[in-house]
Amino acid sequence: MNHFSRHVTAFWLRNFLIVGQIVVWFTTRNIWNIIYPSSVLTLSGMYFLINILFWLTRKNSNDWIFFFQLLIDIVELSLFFYLTGGSSNPFTWFLLIPIIFSATTLRSKHTWLLTLSAVISYTLLIKFFQPVSMEASMHHNHHQTSFSQHLIGMWLGFIVIALLLSWVIIGLVNNIRRKDSQLMQASLNQAKNDKILALATLATGSAHELGTPLATINIIIKEMLKNPQLVDFHKQLQIVESQVYRCKDSLTQITASTGTTQAIKGKKLTVGKFIEKVLNSIHPPESVQLETKVCEFTNQQQMISDKTLVQALVNIINNSFQAESTKVVLKSEISSDELNFIITDNGKGLDEEFGKPIDSDKEFGMGLGLFLAHATIQRFSGSINVKDVDSSGTQIVISLPILQT
């Protein structure tokens, strides 16, 4: 249980005890003619003010301060029982509440100190207490009714303690489950980050290794372009040369961005500039018709982006191109705090394993690009939703946060 949760629980528990003390004072007087001193109400009022003070200072609290707050709870309960019959009061079980609360929120040394304090208080209440006064008309049957009243009080005390125990323990168990879920998610994120780091390292090494053969191919193409006997093939050679330059640019981006803090943190960029970068990075094949619908935006709308985020969107769009599609529609929309890219294709669609680290089923084994794209978008607090996953195509909605100005 975190600091805030335990203060919230303690605040409402104290309010419950305060209300309970006031109810006991009124009901015993009106039902059983047992008269408790008016100082009980004064004590409850002071306890209420102390509870408000604890709540207002909760942000500056630590384990020892919270321990002293629980110790004050024991002192207040002991004073209440001192004024209402001492150890014969059937609600003395309430001294267990601070102990239970300490056991579930504080260290063992705090709990043992509170346990010792509660035992000392209960022991003193056996000898030191204010006798309960009753109206004169009730003295003749006092002995006949006192035991019955004690049993009723113990019954009520048992019910209240059982309910409080259930509330505290259920809250503790739920908190443990929530922590376990958070730890599991953190472990999964760490495993994903390790995989991404390994892939980034592999990509950097591959980029350096591919630089040499690309340079060799480029030299050979230039020599072939100079050869007059190959004039008829100049157009094809120029296409190959442009593709070589494109590969070199991509490898340069990989080596420049991998391992830099800027690639992790990103930088501010206007929404319009980001959309422009995405559109300029898309190269649809001739067999696919690309239709773009760009939303209206202002220069004040900004977001956090870098090259990896742009490439992540491009990878997902390229996947639509490669999904046996004949038409892909790319639409951008802006809500109050999000930029949405809606990618719709009429291809074979994606399966439910989209974005998970699975083996690629593509011809050239590049399916890991989708996994990396999914991880990159999540790193920028974005989300991906796959809609209408069926044989008639796929609609993917990519949502990215817009900075609030």
Structural write-up:
The chain is an alpha+beta fold and 405 residues long. It has three domains: 132 residues, no CATH class; 72 residues; 137 residues, 2-Layer Sandwich (Heat Shock Protein 90). Helices cover 61% and strands 12% of the residues. The protein contains eleven helices and nine strands. A five-stranded mixed sheet has the order 4-6-7-9-8, covered by helices on one side. Strand 8 and strand 9 form a beta hairpin. It starts with a helix and ends with a strand. About 3% of the residues have low confidence.
Helices and strands in order:
Blueprint: H1 3-31, E1 34-35, H2 39-56, H3 63-83, H4 96-105, H5 108-127, E2 133-134, H6 142-226, H7 234-257, H8 261-265, E3 267-270, H9 271-280, E4 289-293, E5 302-305, H10 307-321, E6 327-334, E7 338-345, H11 368-379, E8 383-390, E9 393-401
Parallel strand pairs: 4-6
Antiparallel strand pairs: 1-2, 3-5, 6-7, 7-9, 8-9
Helix pairs in contact: 1-2, 2-3, 3-4, 3-5, 4-5, 4-6, 6-7, 10-11
Overview in brief:
By secondary structure, the protein is α+β, with helices and mostly antiparallel strands. The chain has helices spanning 3-31, 39-56, 63-83, 96-105, 108-127, 142-226, 234-257, 261-265, 271-280, 307-321, 368-379; strands at residues 34-35, 133-134, 267-270, 289-293, 302-305, 327-334, 338-345, 383-390, 393-401.
Q: H/E order of the elements?
A: HEHHHHEHHHEHEEHEEHEE
- CATH superfamily membership of the largest domain: Histidine kinase-like ATPase, C-terminal domain
CATH class of the largest domain: Alpha Beta
Strand order of the largest sheet: 4-6-7-9-8
Mean pLDDT: 78
Low-confidence stretches: 136-140, 259-264
Helix content: 55-70%
Our estimate of the beta-strand percent is: 5-15%
